[in-house]
Amino acid sequence: MRAVDLIQKKRDGQALNKDEIEWLIKGYVNGSIPDYQMSAFAMAVYFKGMTAEETSHLTMAMVVSGKTVDLTSISGVKVDKHSTGGVGDKVTLILVPLIASFGVPVAKMSGRGLGHTGGTLDKLEAIKGYQIERSQEEFVQQVQDLGLAVIGQSDQLVKADKLLYALRDVTATVDAIPLIASSIMSKKIAAGADCILLDVTVGDGAFMKTLKEAEELSQTMVSLGKEVGRHTVAVITDMSQPLGQAIGNRLEVLEALQIMQGKGRHDITDFICRLAQLLLKLAGQKRSLAEIKKHLTDGQALQKFEKMVVYQGGDLKDLYRPSKAKFVTKIFADEDGYIKELPALAFGLFAMRLGAGRAVKTDFLDYETGIVFYKKVGDPIQKGDLLAEIYANEKLSENLLTEFKKNVKIDKEEMKVTEILKIIT
């Protein structure tokens, strides 16, 4: 076989067979196929797509390109959750201990943020001492001991994805659905869980901008999971505004703690409870929303979270400390009405400029900076009400504050907000 022939075949809209895809991925991982040829292949896939069969072959070829995690020594049905990314998404910090509080083991490997999207590992590393690097043996042992673990992905897991994603990031081929689906599902399958909940975000702050695209991606990933015997459900969720109140690593940890103390906004609290209900159902437990909310707000989930933090080296005193940002700027409303828009992308990029996110993977993160919103879309507001606080380590210019306010849209009519748009099973 020759890579150029496979590139041409895909360029012309023909389907590759299993052997061809496996040969291509194996060659790319071992270095016999160079970046420029794999770039050409990725662009061909971007324009011509892949059949369901091709995407399945690609996913499994990526799974076997590295080591896989064996969770069979952990008793019970093991579950995992993945989000396609967004702004202010601290769901993992809350959902993992909540599920574990029902005796369902959660073995979770998470990622870092890039651009306007936040990463779970970055939020956890905002806690002094928290160690995200664990060997497979330590990972499994922790889940056996505590019922939960959230760690970074091993470099040995799905080697092809690490190489291919870096290439896609610089060749404008990130948002090709077969490549997104195979990237996500190869990692989830290799991570070894029995059940997978996929949170597919859609809207201004997400990679998927339309419901149609989100549905196509969701259906592709659910089918991939089922093909290998993993119970998989996708939830399409709104990312037109930031999720919850906080954007920024330390600030999102503090919001997660508030939610697990029963002090969070009702909308994100209810949203997380609905996700938990779906994941528990996948694991064979039928629980009412009232029962789940009790676990979330009465300290049972929080106790699990604290135990995980301590087990992974985190400092409990540091966990609860407020942000050390030097400047906290209050933003007040200029008019009466209802919040109509808080564009997630604009505020994600704004937080990134404060230091809360990375433009490239090597950028330094400022864990203390970010934004806390006191009003969200649909909320009534009066002139002079506190709208938000901006946490920064440099004084903000008037131009920046004007830019912030311009992105807040207020209308005379009340808006209705729905977090979960569709469930794909």
UniProtKB/TrEMBL annotation:
EC class: transferase
GO MF term list: 1,4-alpha-oligoglucan phosphorylase activity; deoxyuridine phosphorylase activity; metal ion binding; thymidine phosphorylase activity; uridine phosphorylase activity
Enzyme Commission code: 2.4.2.2
InterPro entries xrefs: Glycosyl_Trfase_fam3, Glycosyl_Trfase_fam3_N_dom, Glycosyl_Trfase_fam3_N_dom_sf, Nuc_phospho_transferase, PYNP-like_C_sf, PYNP_C, Pyrmidine_PPas_bac/euk, Pyrmidine_PPase_CS
Domain Pyrimidine nucleoside phosphorylase C-terminal positions: 338-411
Pfam families: Glycos_trans_3N (PF02885), Glycos_transf_3 (PF00591), PYNP_C (PF07831)
This protein's record includes keyword Transmembrane: no
Zinc found in the keyword field: no
Cofactor: K(+)
PANTHER family: THYMIDINE PHOSPHORYLASE
Record family assignment: Belongs to the thymidine/pyrimidine-nucleoside phosphorylase family.
Subunit-structure text: Homodimer.
NCBIfam families: PRK05820.1 (NF004490), PRK06078.1 (NF004747), Y_phosphoryl (TIGR02644)
Purpose: Catalyzes phosphorolysis of the pyrimidine nucleosides uridine, thymidine and 2'-deoxyuridine with the formation of the corresponding pyrimidine base and ribose-1-phosphate.
Name the record gives this protein: Pyrimidine-nucleoside phosphorylase
Organism: Streptococcus macacae NCTC 11558
Lineage: Bacteria, Bacillati, Bacillota, Bacilli, Lactobacillales
